UniProtKB/TrEMBL annotation:
This is 60S acidic ribosomal protein P2. The keyword Membrane does not apply. Residues 79-109 are annotated as: Disordered. PANTHER family: 60S ACIDIC RIBOSOMAL PROTEIN FAMILY MEMBER, LARGE RIBOSOMAL SUBUNIT PROTEIN P2. It comes from Penstemon davidsonii. Pfam families: Ribosomal_60s (PF00428).
Length: 116
């Protein structure tokens, strides 16, 4: 990841085709070391390619990956017979009771102050 980040920093800095030494200099400037094999592999894979096109292609690939969280949330109520709605309703009732209690305390205090 850090090698890729160094590559992207170099490209954003105006170097359209960074070398291995460029990446090593960026990494060493923040106290990190880059593995020569990984640097060479990255440079070989991106050689002659536009970084903007690579990022766009990566986004397309990630768009087809399921997010995971949504499917579980939808499947759980269907399997449980809608059990997910009941806890939410119970929670709302608890909040209403708490609010009513707070209001009644205010009324009690105002009555006490009125009697003084």
């Amino acid at each position: 990841m850090k090698v890729l980040a160094a590559y992207l920093l170099a490209v954003l800095g105006g170097n359209a085709s960074p070398s291995a030494d460029d990446l090593k200099n960026i990494l060493s400037s923040v106290g990190a070391e880059g593995d020569d094999d990984r640097i060479e592999l990255l440079l070989k894979q991106v050689k002659g390619k536009d970084i903007t096109e690579l990022i766009a292609a990566g986004r397309e690939k990630l768009a087809s990956v399921p997010a995971g969280g949504g499917a579980v949330a939808v499947a759980a109520p269907a399997a449980g017979g809608g059990g997910g709605a009941a806890p939410a309703a119970a929670e709302a009732k608890k909040e209403e009771k708490v609010e009513e209690k707070e209001e009644s305390d205010d009324v009690s205090l105002s009555v006490c102050y009125a009697n003084i």
